[in-house]
Amino acid sequence: MNPIALIGAGPSGLAGARALSRAGIPFTVFEAGPDVGGLWNIDNPRSTMYESAHLISSRTTTEFAEFPMDSTADYPGHRELHRYFRSYADAYGLREHIRFDTRVTAVEPVDGDATGASGWLVTAIGPDGAASTTEHPAVVLANGTLAEPNVPTFPGEFTGEVMHTSAYKSPKVFDGKRVLIIGAGNSGCDIAVDAVHHAASVDLSVRRGYYFVPRYLFGRPSDTLNQGRPLPARIKQFVDTRVLRAFTGDPVRFGFPEPDYRIYESHPIVNTLILNHLGQGDLRVVRDIDRFDGRTVHFADGSEADYDLVVLATGYRLDYPFVAREHLNWTSAAPELYLNIFPPSFNGLFVLGMIEASGIGWQGRYEQAELIAAYLAAQRDEPDAASRFRDAAARPWPDLTGGYHYLGLDRMSYYVNKDAYRRTMKRMLRSLPAPGGAAAAASVPVDAPVDGAAPAGARTGSRT
Ligand SMILES: Cc1cc2nc3c(=O)[nH]c(=O)nc-3n(C[C@H](O)[C@H](O)[C@H](O)COP(=O)(O)OP(=O)(O)OC[C@H]3O[C@@H](n4cnc5c(N)ncnc54)[C@H](O)[C@@H]3O)c2cc1C
């Protein structure tokens, strides 16, 4: 059997490598950057990390379950996290499978056979600049979801500087400037907090209201609270809205619009420093953009102001540029995949890490990898079991929303509820034979609770 191809050695790709290696499935990893760690390696040219970035989900809810982080920080910074991924790769002997500085440019079906039955051709450009093509029975795509900037267009033209958060590294860029940040997602708020110490002025343009979650509640990382059986969505929304009001007050007081949706129907913002700075008068909330005119920005409420630098904190869009869209069943802003992993045609392509969820962490990505590995092992060793697994995809797909009505935004198109998702993953994993006779579910004991209720606390990462 030729090795499976795995694209990317970020947290998801490493999880994939570990799961395939545990299942005894040969694989080769193609990594465009010089090291493991994905976007947590700020030196990876594709990284969208910035100097001040730390986890927004807490260490213990984010780390790989079988490899606790050697850290006392609740919310470690990116350099510590990069070291963690290096240690993870070394501990499980993953590096020897990785071809670094090797960028995949094309993934095409052998003989043009879109069923994937004949396998896939992977073309990559290596460190010497030469392209080579190798044949693989299956390809796992783990090239990340937060790399391709979403750059909206606005009427008019801004003649000052414009940058997307993906290019932001250090707050020195703000020195003495009048800064407008468009979008108050997690990255927008982090960067606004950086900017207030450097810029001449900072405004934050928002279209809708947000829910702000403190990093600590009752003296503990907020996402470590409320572990146990998840509350029904409506009850949790009711309780958590009130808990947040008690801790952070009403963001409307600071100029934010009232959210026109319930908590957890979009990604909450894990940042209350932004509210402190608003309270100190260090920055202002302004309305949605109406148009640009030279250095002047006109807002939807008729107000206007002049700026030197506009920062687009407008998020990212999914991109799998090396594979034709039909192979991934793209229907809208995201491929429509069974369990966010499997194209419904089961063509031998697998997507790993195309998941956004409050609190899913890297362990959630590992559980995706385990399912892929168990399916590939079943295809090899027990084809009937693999066929039954595929049959399940022909029935109505499980509800992964957990009863939450997510906003109909592009960035929410692959959003899931972590409890519903992990519960489903566990069930599907149990439906497959354990690879090589060892428990496929080894790292997810079948009787163990799946990470408890989503707490009233910190959430994992849509960094818009
Ligand atoms: C500022 C910031 C803070 C965040 N905070 C959190 C948090 O607190 N908690 C959390 O869980 N998540 C957080 N995230 C989300 C983050 O995306 C995940 O933690 C994690 O990095 C996703 O891993 P990944 O492997 O899927 O993608 P990535 O980390 O993006 O890794 C993808 C890898 O694929 C490689 N690659 C891409 N294209 C190719 C190609 N064509 N050929 C070969 N290799 C390729 C890249 O070089 C990269 O190494 C944060 C993100 C950002 C930007």
Automatic annotation (TrEMBL):
Please indicate if the UniProt record lists Signal as a keyword.
no
* InterPro entries the UniProt entry points to: FAD/NAD-bd_sf, Flavin_mOase, Flavin_mOase-like, FMO-like, NAD(P)-bd_dom_sf
Residues spanning the signal sequence: none
Ranges annotated as spanning the membrane:
none
> What Gene3D superfamilies would the database entry show?
FAD/NAD(P)-binding domain
Instruction: Give UniProt keywords alphabetically.
Output: FAD, Flavoprotein, NADP, Oxidoreductase
Q: Which family does it belong to?
A: Belongs to the FMO family. Belongs to the FAD-binding monooxygenase family.
The entry's protein name is: NAD(P)-binding domain-containing protein
Source species of the chain: Agromyces tropicus
Organism ancestry: Bacteria, Bacillati, Actinomycetota, Actinomycetes, Micrococcales
